[in-house]
Amino acid sequence: MESGRKLLLPIFCLLAMLVVACGGGNSATTAPAQGSHTKAPDNKQVYIDAAPGAGNSDFNTLDPAKITDIYSNMPASRIFTGLVALDDKLNVQPQMAKSWDRASDGLSYTFHLKPNLKFSDGTPMTAHDVAYSIDRTLQPAMKSPTGPYYLQYIKDADKLNSGKIKTIIGDSLVVPDDNTITIKLNKPVAFFLDALSYTTGLVVEKSLLQKYGEYTGKWIDHLTEGGASGPFKVKSYDHTKQMVIVPNENYYGAKPQLKEIIMPFYKEKDTTRKDYLIDRLDNASIPLVNLQQDKSRPDYHQTPILAINYYAMNYNQKPFDNIKIRQAFALAINKDLIVQNIWKGSYIATNHIVPQGQPGYNPDLTGPAGVKGTAGDPAQAKQLLEQGLKEDGYNSVKDLPPITLTYSSGGVQAARDEAAALQQMWQQVLGISVKTDDIDFNKLINDETSGANNPLQFYSGPAWIADYPDPQDWTTLQFDAGVAQNGMNFGQNKGPDAAAQQALQKRLEQADVMQDPTARMAEYNKIEQELVNEVAWIPVEQQIYTVLRKPCVQNVIDNASQNTPPEDWGKIYISTDTPCVNATVS
């Protein structure tokens, strides 16, 4: 699991720093109904989508077992589907499954598949393919960076992944007939279906993979022959230029109205905006320098996404084992000024660990020590610092050990500016001089995910993007004992509050398996407030997804996951509205 998180995090950082990087999203409002626009002819139903390939010379991978980034996730979720998927409101909906039954003890799910499912080449798609796809992801030879995490709650998944057993088919994955599969769990986690919606739950065609190498990834270059289980199939894939996908005539759901989606690669992300303005693209990324002027454009869209930029203090290093000193540092920050002056309004200032738009979001949450708002509280910060210094035997801030904030800017000036702004706030409010250290990103990730061995005193997270829309992903996964993300050593320290932190960790584990959804969300809300009071993180900003999109692209709905659900493609089409790309089906 730890290795998987390390591979995921670089993408999170990239998104955090570039802010407006991806371009496949849409405004937070529902698009007009189809009847209010004239649909263009079929040969004009071409969508040139820059979102997946912006800033990339190629997709990292299209193998569902290997995907760790949103850029690869976008095309993969158009080509493949699984038992379930998330809709635009991030609720779990049936896909290949028409229904499912959950055992009374929560330790198994039995899925009933839709009838007559087929892959794009006409090969029947059955429950055996579902079992094969999940089992393959967990095979040691697959070396999946994500499967051991997203599928960890399947019974004996860890044994398979470590090579102790050869398969879980017939054990944890039971297929009594072609249209039924039962998945057994090792604990009754309430968020299993959410986790199953990730790419590790997508279904691939066994015969195609075995023909070209099921663990090598070479089969991806043969997707033109078949293998698609989703609304689209691959027409062509030039690793140096673009991918073209077309409707999968064997898809079980509503057939796409678009006749082609072209996904070109752009090594320079900012180039997409230039090509958009001369009608070569249907959507485009917005560089930070252009954001303010583009906000007034009628083709500008934005929506908050499930991504939080945060900082963390290591409980195992002085002076951050003292809660009042931690609170002082948090309350000395005016997050509103950082968002306005540095990020030009492209972020939302926040005190939240669980972001807006996420099930379980708590609108009543306050900052540390009950402070409301995101502008900080200099007076209370000073008072808390004075109390903390006295408790730990410091006569003044001059007696504190040297403090260094470690981060990785990735060469982004705004990230450097934020670090400098924090330095200035801590100096002005607390009288504390904090050094900054802008280091290599991979070193930052390796250090901060090393738990008790984390050498960092104070560091940038640098961001977390939801893996699936459940508060567990923001709480237990970050702060429970032994998890890779707990580099701040919450509950893993000898400080005066360690026992209380460990009690909270137990409550997290109990919340994970609570069966009453209302009570479960209420418990996560309480725990999140305690984590904020503890300053387990210093959340600073929630990211916003911004994009320019042609008015002729109809019925795309923005959502916090940045991905279009499979069923939505049956509603999306190109209208005669202008301006529009003058593209024709090839």
Q: What distinguishing features does this structure have?
A:
586 residues, alpha+beta, D-Maltodextrin-Binding Protein, domain 2, Dipeptide-binding Protein, domain 3, four-stranded mixed beta sheet, 17 helices, 19 strands, globular, peptide transmembrane transporter activity, SBP_5_dom
Structure description:
This is Peptide ABC transporter substrate-binding protein. Residues 1-21 form the signal peptide. The structure is a single chain. The chain has 586 residues and is an alpha+beta fold. It has two domains: 31-285 and 550-574, D-Maltodextrin-Binding Protein, domain 2 (3-Layer(aba) Sandwich), CATH 3.40.190.10; 307-543, Dipeptide-binding Protein, domain 3 (Roll), CATH 3.10.105.10. Helix content is 28%, strand content 17%. It contains 17 helices and 19 strands. It has helices at 2-18, 70-79, 127-138, 147-150, 157-161, 192-196, 206-212, 271-277, 291-294, 323-331, 335-341, 378-391, 413-430, 441-448, 476-479, 498-512, 517-534, and strands at 46-48, 84-86, 92-94, 97-102, 108-113, 173-177, 180-184, 232-238, 242-247, 260-264, 283-284, 300-313, 347-349, 403-407, 434-438, 458-465, 538-549, 553-554, 573-574. Strands 11, 12, 13, 14, 15, 16 and 17 form a seven-stranded mixed beta sheet that branches. Strands 1-10-9-8 form a four-stranded mixed beta sheet, with helices on one face. The chain has a four-stranded antiparallel beta sheet with strand order 4-5-7-6, with helices on one face. A hairpin with a 5-residue loop joins strand 2 and strand 3. Helix 10 (323-331) packs antiparallel against helix 12 (378-391). It is globular and about 75 Å long. Mean pLDDT is 91; it is low at 1-35.
